[in-house]
Amino acid sequence: MVNVTWEDWTYKGYANFSDNGTANGISNWTMIENVNKSNITVTVTSGTLYINITNSTPEWQTNVTGATVYINTSNVSPYKIIFLNGANASGNFTITGNASGKWFIRARDYIINTSITFTSNRVKAEFWIPVSVPW
Are 12 and 110 in contact (CB under 8 A)? Predict the structure, then answer.
């Protein structure tokens, strides 16, 4: 038998900007590569977030609000959006645009804890998995 449950996220705080959205996730990580055109919206509710945007062009739209955010742009290939110090900052983001010739959207607002339980006559195993909830 398999049972899946998740916590009530209605009043949950925002996710961290780490790779998996939790405070113990990888803090410095590449959000997306080979971006040609992008709209970036980031709201930081606590902490300090650094965003590295490589090879940005005038076609990029950036809207960053909230707590302390530093944006560094450079003209180095390939095109990338990188979050730094993400485990120490929380908030939400939406990034839309064109990468490798295809339109994309990446968004994260909350992280909820999901529980998966496998049971049989002899064994019971339970796993907790963080799940990103876009807005």
Answer: yes
